[in-house]
Amino acid sequence: MMYNNLDDLPQEYEEELSQLETQITELFALLEKSEIQITKLQDENFQLKAQIQKLQQQSKPVQYKSPQVDTIKVPKDIIATVSPSDTYPRQNKRKCPNCGATGFSIKEVDDKTCIITYVPRRIYKKKKVCTKCRFEF
Ligand SMILES: [Zn+2]
Fold first, then answer.
1. Which band of pLDDT confidence, cut at 50, 70 and 90, is reported for residue 22?
2. DSSP 27-93
3. Distance of alpha carbon 117 from alpha carbon 96, whole angstroms
4. Which terminus of the chain is more exposed, N or C, with fewer CB under 10 A?
5. Centre of ligand 1 from the C-alpha of residue 108, in Å
6. Which is higher by pLDDT, 40 or 67?
């Protein structure tokens, strides 16, 4: 009786074991499937990240263009700041600081050694020349 009892138990265990083994193989198959899915998703993620990097690199030159536009605008600002100073001496009385000559004796000419801007056209710094003593100021 004891022997039979002992002999019966392993048989029950064997059935359970075989059931568990099939369950394990099923679970392993599931695991494999999910692992394949994970690797697929990881590949997809990697590709998407690469795409994001590409897009970020592409968007960088666009951002780089805006300062270039600003540098084009800068000479216009210079012109804007120049024109008031250009008209300013005309409003003031022209007077030679060297000989004291005034009015038509003082001529306003371009200082060709000093170019303020090339855009949109060449603009020279203005200088005044006294026609009486040839003093430049
Ligand atoms: Zn003078």
1. very high
2. HHHHHHHHHHHHHHHHHHHHHHHHHHHHHHHHHHHHHHHHHHHHHHHHHHHHHHHHHHHHHHHHHSP
3. 27
4. N
5. 13
6. 40
- In degrees, rounded to 5, the angle at the alpha carbon of residue 66 between the alpha carbons of residues 61 and 68 is 95
**pTM: predicted TM-score of the whole model, two decimal places:** 0.32
User: How far is residue 93's CA from residue 2's CA, in Å, rounded to a whole number?
Assistant: 133
- The residues that bridge with 115 in the sheet, in sequence order, are 124
- 137 alpha carbon to ligand 1 midpoint, in Å? 10
* Dist. CA 19–CA 29, nearest whole Å: 15
Ligand 1 geometric centre to CA of 133 (Å):
4
Which two structure tokens, joined as six digits, stand for 131? 């026609």
Distance 128 CA to ligand 1 centre (A): 10
Go through 86-96 and write b for each residue having 16 or more CB atoms within 10 A of its CB, e for each that does not. Answer: eeeeeeeebbb
Type and span of the H or E element at 115: strand 106-117
The full set of domain ranges for the chain reads: 67-137
